[in-house]
């Protein structure tokens, strides 16, 4: 997670490019570009808000605790940004400290989920929204981020309950968005281009994790 370092992902602001959509782009007849950009920005228009229920979660086993709005960006995924990846993180701290920094507007980063050592899952950002978790805007837009309580150099932090709960969560995300259950689409934070993070670290058992995800993916919902 890197609690002391803000995400490199910045928000998309309505500015000169949005003006061009309504002006020069339309005048040039670039209907495809205009339609794509307007689809991504429709909810920013005055009086337009995507229907949402306070406290609603995307994963039935999760508890909702809201992250600061400064640490994510409202979106309409997968309609505006297709979701085809899950990014695995380790918090480099306790569960409580991860929740605290994700609620801190100065942190400028947060993941969609945190999995505790005992398997408890907390959701802090809706999957339809873009979380600032990967340090790479393109990856943030296309992925769901899952944090795991612990430290990368302490293998004892990676408990059976954590692996099993996280695998069930990842399996449901993959099922929801038709994401292939393989290492090209389920990746570690360290594998994100441009990142300076090392999580989930050398002790994360990818073979074990992927077997659990595949088993959960094929199990009855």
Descriptive notes:
By secondary structure, the protein is of the alpha/beta class. It is built from 6 helices and 8 strands, in the order H-H-E-E-E-H-E-E-E-H-E-H-E-H. It has helices at residues 16-27, 31-41, 95-102, 137-142, 160-177, 206-218; strands spanning 62-64, 72-73, 85-88, 113-115, 121-123, 130-131, 143-148, 186-188. A 6-stranded mixed beta sheet has the order 1-5-4-7-3-8, sandwiched between helices. Strands 2-6 form a two-stranded antiparallel sheet. Helix 1 (16-27) runs antiparallel to helix 2. The protein is globular and about 45 Å long. InterPro entries: Amidase/PGRP_sf, Amidase_domain, NAMLAA_amidase_2.
Number of strands: 8
Q: Structural class of the helices, strands and pairings? A: alpha/beta
Number of helices: 6
Beta percentage is 5-15%
The major beta sheet can be summarized as: 6 strands, mixed
Helix content: 25-40%
Query: Can you list the strand order of the major beta sheet?
Result: 1-5-4-7-3-8
SSE sequence, one letter per element: HHEEEHEEEHEHEH
Protein name: N-acetylmuramoyl-L-alanine amidase
Organism: Streptomyces nigra
InterPro entries: Amidase/PGRP_sf, Amidase_domain, NAMLAA_amidase_2
Enzyme class: hydrolase
Which terms summarize this structure?
single chain; 221 residues; alpha/beta; 6-stranded mixed β-sheet; 6 helices; 31% helix; disordered N terminus
Provide a compact summary of the structure.
With 221 residues, this protein is of the alpha/beta class. The protein has six helices and eight strands, in the order ααβββαβββαβαβα.
